[in-house]
Amino acid sequence: MNNSPINFLDLRADHAEVRDDLDKAWSDLVDTCGFVGGGAVDEFEAAFASYQRGTHCIGVANGTDALELILGAAGIGPGDEVIVPANTFIATAEAVAHVGADIVFADVDPDTLLITGDAIDAVVTERTAAVMAVHLYGQMVDLDDVGAACARHGLALVEDAAQAHGAEWNGVRAGSAGIGAGFSFYPGKNLGALGDGGAVVTGDAELERKIRSMSNHGRSSTSKYEHDLLGRNSRLDALQAKALTIKLARLDDWNDARRAAAAWYREYLPAAVRPLVIRPEAVAVHHLGLVQVPDGTRDSIGALLEQHGIGWGIHYPVPCHQQAPFAGATPVSMPVTEAAAGRIMSLPMHPHLSESDIKRIAEVLGGHPALAESA
Ligand SMILES: Cc1ncc(COP(=O)(O)O)c(C=O)c1O
Q1: Protein residue whose Cα sits closest to atom 7 of ligand 1
Q2: Nearest CA to ligand 1 atom 12
Q3: Do residues 342 and 248 make contact, with C-beta atoms less than 8 angstroms apart?
Q4: What separation in Å is there between the alpha carbon of 154 and the centre of ligand 1?
Q5: Closest-lying ligand 1 atom to the alpha carbon of residue 88
Q6: Is the CATH number 3.90.1150.10 carried by domain 251-372?
Q7: Atom of ligand 1 minimally distant from the CA of 196
Q8: Pocket, ligand 1, Cβ cutoff 6 A
């Protein structure tokens, strides 16, 4: 068997496609010294708002800030509860904690590992103000179901779209489904910067005005020296904006390539290695190659992959409600999330995987004693 490594991510291959443009962007910036704000940021914000089919985009420093700024600008804070799926990256919960609201965790669907309307119904109270709809792994939550639950209880829907650039549900794109969406441009995301970066996308002009000000020291829109709101520094810098504009032009092709890789996984993986269910209404962008393996087999499967130079990860081995800062936030168990945490693993997923790479990963997995029968 060919034993060349198969990386979990391959940013070098992505960047090779746009290298000349990235080099030119950097060189132009060093010449002009317009490092923060300005035309490069305006250009990216316009392009990304239009791509996400939202009306407004505000570039910010990272995805966590984007979520916190949406909650803060929407007036959510002390005394409010915000529902957060237990199966998410910790940043979703951090954003809620940092505006002073109480986190209430909700369990997820066993097939998609995403939050559901029933899970919201199970934990909603009269203090609930919002739901963090996390489009985890590149698939949007069931918007019909989650949207109906939010409408039923009068809750704001905030999208955590950090892993869902370009994802859709029934023609609605991540970023245009709720009051506001937070995106991360951490380098490994489907659209990644050359460092940290993030954005808020919203259709609400008042929310946009507030977030634009709050992310820039609460500055007034008319005077550089006056500050209307309590703000902070959470600005997207011009280099990141230039790199993101360049890479945004490749995003649809890269997402198509991820979908092709996901289809090959479905075709070749042994039956006991189960990819997540993708709902027919969803256009998923496969941020991660998430699969579930039989209980008790993950460590030895991971060791086998490593022996063959194949990268893998776990997203996430410790559920958010069991992480130290949040343990005790909700004294209830999250059975689906807790069971999944022991059997999920993420296989390589990026736009430069070939069919033969994925055949080889499947073949290696088929050589594991617990998976061989199903190969
Ligand atoms: C689901 C989710 N939410 C929020 C974030 C936070 O983004 P950032 O790391 O840019 O702050 C991430 C990124 O890691 C994420 O995966």
Answers
A1: 63
A2: 162
A3: no
A4: 26
A5: 1
A6: yes
A7: 10
A8: 62-64, 88-89, 91-92, 134, 136, 160, 162-163, 184, 186, 196, 198
The yes-or-no verdict on residue 16 having pLDDT over 90 is: yes
Structure tokens at 160: 């955590």
Contact 57, 181 (CB under 8 A): no
Q: Which of 84, 114, 184 to mutate to test the pocket of ligand 1 (most atoms within 8 A of CB)?
A: 184
**For the CA of 136, the nearest atom of ligand 1:** 1
**Chain length of the chain:** 375
pTM, to two decimals: 0.97
183 in Cβ contact with 165 (< 8 Å): yes
User: Roughly what angle, to the nearest 10 degrees, separates helices 63-73 and 91-98?
Assistant: 40
Matching CATH number, 11-246, of 3.30.390.10, 3.40.640.10, 3.40.30.10, 3.40.1350.10: 3.40.640.10
CATH 3.90.1150.10 residue spans of the chain: 251-372
Q: Where in the chain is the domain with CATH 3.40.640.10?
A: 11-246
pLDDT digits (tens, 9 = 90+) for 133-174: 999 999 999 999 999 999 999 999 999 999 999 999 999 999
